[in-house]
Design goal:
Length: 193
């Protein structure tokens, strides 16, 4: 099976096609055929050597990739999440050694795989797990009460685009900013001001 990985750390030029063993879903696991994988800061750190100390525990190739979207092609015994073969899903991967999302297929614990939102492409769905979780955790940590103001800068970044629509769920008044070139996307994320 093919993957995109690295044998040594460096810039984007160190990424290469590598062969890794095919994997199959075991009990409580789901295998998905990956159609899209996001590039996150953690993936860049895995590639550029910022995580080299942690990676030393395993031999290369190192396969980056935390977020993936694709189609379920195997479901192991005991999977109780309702995910079935043929479902469009998105997943969060904890990349270690050759277990990252930049590959043709990946096996994950059933809890790491959820249905993709209806109407999204694989590219759109793969951008949601890390950004959505970061947005939700940020709001949870702020613990805003109804009526409080959430002021956000960079409202058009991937996380900001998700914070804006999530904040009214808590009854917050939103104020956000972005660069002028992103004004149409800015309006779509719905700040109060």
């Amino acid at each position: 099976m093919r993957a995109v990985g690295l044998m040594t750390h460096g810039g984007p030029e160190v990424l290469q096609i590598v062969d890794v063993p095919e994997v199959h879903a075991g009990p409580g696991q789901v295998r998905l055929r990956i159609h899209a994988a996001a590039v996150n800061p953690t993936d860049t750190m895995a590639r550029n050597g910022a995580r080299a100390e942690q990676q030393k525990a395993d031999p290369p190739p190192y396969i980056p990739g935390m977020d993936a979207a694709g189609i379920v092609d195997e479901v192991g015994d005991g999977v109780t999440t309702g995910v079935q073969v043929g479902d469009a899903v998105m997943a969060m991967v904890c990349p270690t050694a050759s277990h990252g999302a930049y590959r043709e297929q990946i096996v994950l614990d059933q809890r790491a795989v959820v249905p993709a939102p209806a109407g999204t492409t694989h590219v759109q769905a793969c951008s949601l797990p890390m950004n959505g979780l970061t947005a939700r955790q940020s709001l949870d940590l702020l613990d805003l009460s109804p009526g409080q103001v959430l002021a956000g800068t960079r409202a058009c970044c991937p996380c900001g685009v998700l914070v804006c629509p999530l904040s009214p769920i808590r009854g917050c008044f939103r104020v956000a900013s972005c660069v002028c070139s992103h004004r149409l996307r800015f309006r779509a994320c719905g700040p109060s001001v």
